[in-house]
Amino acid sequence: xxxxxxxxxxxxxxxxxxxxxxxxxxxxxxxxxxxxxxxxxxxxxxxxxxxxxxxxxxxxxxxxxxxxxxxxxxxxxxxxxxxxxxxxxxxxxxxxxxxxxxxxxxxxxxxxxxxxxxxxxxxxxxxxxxxxxxxxxxxxxxxxxxxxxxxxxxxxxxxxxxxxxxxxxxxxxxxxxxxxxxxxxxx
Amino acid sequence: xxxxxxxxxxxxxxxxxxxxxxxxxxxxxxxxxxxxxxxxxxxxxxxxxxxxxxxxxxxxxxxxxxxxxxxxxxxxxxxxxxxxxxxxxxxxxxxxxxxxxxxxxxxxxxxxxxxxxxxxxxxxxxxxxxxxxxxxxxxxxxxxxxxxxxxxxxxxxxxxxxxxxxxxxxxxxxxxxxxxxxxxxxxxxxxxxxxxxxxxxxxxxxxxxxxxxxxxxxxxxxxxxxxxxxxxxxxxxxxxxxxxxxxxxxxxxxxxxxxxxxxxxxxxxxxxxxxxxxxxxxxxxxxxxxxxxxxxxxxxxxxxxxxxxxxxxxxxxxxxxxxxxxxxxxxxxxxxxxxxxxxxxxxxxxxxxxxxxxxxxxxxxxxxxxxxxxxxxxxxxxxxxxxxxxxxxxxxxxxxxxxxxxxxxxxxxxxxxxxxxxxxxxxxxxxxxxxxxxxxxxxxxxxxxxxxxxxxxxxxxxxxxxxxxxxxxxxxxxx
Lengths: 187, 479
Ligand code: SF4
Description:
The complex is a heterodimer of chains A (187) and B (479).
Chain A: E1 14-20, H1 26-32, H2 37-44, E2 45-49, E3 63-69, E4 72-74, H3 75-87, E5 88-94, H4 96-100, H5 116-124, E6 136-141, E7 151-153, H6 160-171
Parallel strand pairs in A: 1-2, 1-3, 3-5, 5-7
Antiparallel strand pairs in A: 4-6
Chain B: E1 6-9, E2 19-25, E3 31-38, H1 44-47, H2 56-61, H3 68-83, H4 89-121, H5 132-138, H6 140-161, E4 170-171, E5 174-175, H7 181-210, H8 215-221, E6 226-231, E7 243-247, E8 253-258, H9 263-266, E9 267-270, E10 279-282, E11 292-293, H10 296-302, H11 309-322, H12 332-351, E12 371-378, E13 381-389, E14 395-401, H13 403-406, H14 408-423, H15 433-444, H16 450-453, E15 462-467, E16 473-478
Parallel strand pairs in B: 6-11, 9-15
Antiparallel strand pairs in B: 1-2, 2-3, 4-5, 6-7, 7-8, 9-10, 12-13, 13-14, 15-16
The complex binds iron/sulfur cluster (SF4).
């Protein structure tokens, strides 16, 4: 769509969020690879939460769609994923880390569990004044092992084209993944 | 008056990675210390052990979606050394092209997408509008320019590597395929618009600076430190294939023209009990006196000159405004714009180089060495990949010394200074959101990449010191 001729719909503006669990930010960068189409996106939706892109410190209520990058690697990730599910109509697992843990899951090869003790030791800090650091889960989990997911976009990262198609279908109120579309695959 | 002794800003936003700032105050409400705490650990240095070194370019690219090219190139450079060969001339040029294109896209992201809402829309803009979408609404032309500049970099990477993010191209010995004529021409055709966009961004930001901009904070975020970066053989600005130069805050040379393998002689890492990120310092000066910085500010401080016309004149103007050695952390924003210009001009020159399209892009050899250090300038500063392998080429030791980790000490000093300036004596109830955002902006000026930085496992010499509240040393451990 040409960003110059965007018609703003009459219905209430959509509320978009992105979330970043244990990933590399590459899936967020793929979203930004929409480039000038971001301007069309901004015409349809408000960005209401995204630690990478805006300053909402709390994940708000009544989010229409959330793109989730990354696997569930810590207790904090798990709680955040649940909060997202409670407050969001459509949750999309964006990229291979969210779908099947991908690179993030390679840490299962480490026998010492990434020095969990070092992390716990760091949690105290001087005079115990610092709040604790997130506790790593023994196994990295795919998003779908923790919450129900409405659509998945595979890829490491998924291409901007596919992210753009999904978002367009969203604001046109169509199913996120076309039922007659090509089969989804990894990579 | 309520006086919360600990203030926590979490999560930090509009930065790359998961972190928080913890501010400690005494009973009078005076700030003792502000700490940047990184909240993630993905363990690359551990899980790569036992894998073939040839996997490292593809694996370590996944450390970071913003600077995957830097990791890929550093891993490939370490691989070249393990094979004991030099890549062919075309591959060296294509690697430079990738590194330059990545600095453009990453700096455009840092300046336009992430920091300009503070710099151009203003600190007091409510958080609901203080982001890229807010910039699109308030300054559409500028937002477009920033988006297009980032696209220029991403498209150039795609033309060489086949994909803008995590493209598989660099390998030990060179690259996987040569650049096609149409790929080169696509980059060339996009250059004029990219130049216009860079000029637009620079002019707009200079207006902000002329109106006083961030001048009120200059003294607060000016920090005496050493600076480290790569330079070419003549001391010129350089992002690939140069040698290390380390200077002091007054410009005196500490070390010059040193190869990657010397990094362990020049630098060491300390740990603090409250941080997952180590605190690198200049070995000769000890911890924490050996505080040093890397990145755009450091690169412009260490270089004598930039070899192209427009960038040279922008550098001269930047130095006129800020001084020959710039200590002000917020000057990094302008430094990024100057570097975007330098990268555009360097790419323009590379595109004219007849060797760029040569079909020979890979030299082959078997394993000839067991230890190597690859380095390069990532957008955020000097990056080192240090590997040791067994005779089968399986990794036995991996140390990644990344830019953001090297700026750790400086980032903590900067937010402590900002927190003192903005918060000393204020009751918790009277701390507006915009003030906390200004402290976060101290971190944003460094454009940290925390997914990169938390892999530092502290493989270098370690020195841990424990101090009591008066600063006297209670205990010390060295490794
Ligand atoms: S799927 Fe790939 S691009 Fe996305 S977060 Fe994971 S490693 Fe990064």
